[in-house]
Amino acid sequence: MAKKQLNLVYALKDGAIVNIAEVDSGLKCNCICPACGERLIAKKGSKKVHHFAHHSGTNCEYGYETSLHLAAKSILMNAKKMTLPAVYVHFKNTGRSKALVSEPREITIDHVELEKRYDDIVPDVVVYSEGKFFFVEIFVTHSIDDLKLNKLKREDISVAL
Description:
Elements: E1 10-13, E2 16-19, E3 26-32, E4 39-43, E5 51-54, H1 63-79, E6 81-84, E7 87-89, E8 99-102, E9 105-108, E10 111-114, E11 125-129, E12 132-136, H2 146-154, E13 159-160
Parallel strand pairs: 12-13
Antiparallel strand pairs: 1-2, 3-4, 4-5, 6-9, 7-8, 10-11, 11-12
């Protein structure tokens, strides 16, 4: 069965991430694919959901996922704050109920970086706040694998999934 192609709704214009709703139709949008760098057409007709398409007619395998990563970075950069969820410890196979370690709390975001390498780990987004950092993994087509999760645990790096 063929893999369903997801509509590309975010692109790059003049180095900034833009939504399909923010640009002119057709090639006048002056947008490029965030994954492969190819020129895009903004398709804004009346029958289908508005989306970008590659000018050459090809489908870029990573365009959709990359565009969502860039959108997440943009949202985090512009938000300046985010709420961290409650943290629990789970005691597998013990019969004990989970224990609350940290209540949900709001933090101020100092800055973010996209796909910055830490040794052999490349997180989707690194969020810096008050002299600390944590990784954010954006789940679009596949979740974080056990190998990467175990590396993060060994390095004692916090990650939001």
